[in-house]
Every structure is written in structure tokens, then in C-alpha cells.
Amino acid sequence: MALEMSTERDGNVLYQQKESDDKFVDWRGREANPKKHGGIRAAALTCVVGVLINMVFLSNAINFVSYFRLSMHYSPATSANMVTNFMGTSFLLSIVGGFICDSLFTSFTTFIIFCAINLVGVILLAIQAQFTHLRPAVDVKPSLFQATILYIGLYAFAAGIAGLNVALPAHGAEQFDHNDARLISAFFNWFNFAICLGA
């Protein structure tokens, strides 16, 4: 393993540091204290968030067919197709979310951005479900405006879920020392259990 050495003017070695040692900072830019930042508590919180995200995603996906059919007056075939497209989009956009998480932003920043997108989608869908003038009358197809609100809310929800599914496990794994493979492996086992629990 390569070592990086710092030397004084007289040639004495001050310290040796592995190239893989990372310096982490907190949200204020100060060096992070491992006893206060990260660790098991922060990783456990990501598991709890994973349970809640999966509950929201799957419960809505299950109820979308009946909502599209009964409230928005789409045919059963169209309703099922819309849900299939929603599910496919939410999983396919994970590729884009992974690129954003790995290349452009930190996992926490990506998590916050996609949380906001997800929240916009859920709020739009909830507002449309609440107010009758945003839904079509009985046995009438939705107007262009009503369908636009539905699709914007639906696909904002799908895009938000896609980014969250990528950023959340990465952020949870970042809470541990990268040299401790046992803890990282245990985190992913618990995170997978949390995802299954949310289903």
C-alpha cells in the first residue's frame, strides 16, 4: 500500500498517512469528529427513512390503479398501463439519480434534492385528490389541465423515489469508516431488511 510522507527541512518524517484515509467535514466545513458525527445512529436513521420511503411508494403504487379508474375515470387497461409506466420510470430514473449522486453532488445533497422533488409530486397528487375541481366529473375524461397536474405529480413522485433509492444507501454507508468492511456489510444487511419491512 502506498504511503504519503511529509518531511521537515532536515529530513525527519513528521507523519505517515495512507492515501485511503479520508478527511470528513461537517455541514459547517469543520473537521468531523467521529464520536459526534456519523456512526451507527446516523446509519440507523437512514434505515428508518428507507422503511418510510418504501411504505409511501408501494402504498401509493398499489392504490393508483383504483384512483386512476374511479376518480380520474381512465379505463382499467389505461390505469394499469399508467401504473406500469410509473413503476418503470421510478426504477429506470435510478440510473440518472446514481450519476447525479456519484458525479455531481454528495449523497446527502442528492437526497435533499430528490426529497424536494418527491414532496412536490406527493403534494400535487394529494391536492388533486382533495379538490373536486381538479378531478373530472362522473363518467367524463380528465381535461388537459387535470391530466397535466396528474402527470406532473405522478412523474415528480417517480423521479423523487428514483433519486432517493440511490442516495439513501450511499449516504448510510458513508457514516462508517471505509476501512471497516464488517460494519458497512452489516449496514447493507439491515438496510435491505428495512426495505423489505417497508414493503
Automatic annotation (TrEMBL):
<keyword id="KW-0472">Membrane</keyword>
<protein>
    <recommendedName>
        <fullName>Nodulin-like domain-containing protein</fullName>
    </recommendedName>
</protein>
<dbReference type="GO" id="GO:0016020">
    <property type="term" value="C:membrane"/>
</dbReference>
<feature type="transmembrane region" description="Helical">
    <location>
        <begin position="108"/>
        <end position="129"/>
    </location>
</feature>
<keyword id="KW-0812">Transmembrane</keyword>
<feature type="transmembrane region" description="Helical">
    <location>
        <begin position="149"/>
        <end position="168"/>
    </location>
</feature>
<dbReference type="GO" id="GO:0022857">
    <property type="term" value="F:transmembrane transporter activity"/>
</dbReference>
<dbReference type="Pfam" id="PF00854">
    <property type="entry name" value="PTR2"/>
</dbReference>
<dbReference type="InterPro" id="IPR036259">
    <property type="entry name" value="MFS_trans_sf"/>
</dbReference>
<feature type="transmembrane region" description="Helical">
    <location>
        <begin position="82"/>
        <end position="101"/>
    </location>
</feature>
<feature type="transmembrane region" description="Helical">
    <location>
        <begin position="42"/>
        <end position="62"/>
    </location>
</feature>
<comment type="similarity">
    <text>Belongs to the major facilitator superfamily. Proton-dependent oligopeptide transporter (POT/PTR) (TC 2.A.17) family.</text>
</comment>
<keyword id="KW-1133">Transmembrane helix</keyword>
<dbReference type="InterPro" id="IPR000109">
    <property type="entry name" value="POT_fam"/>
</dbReference>
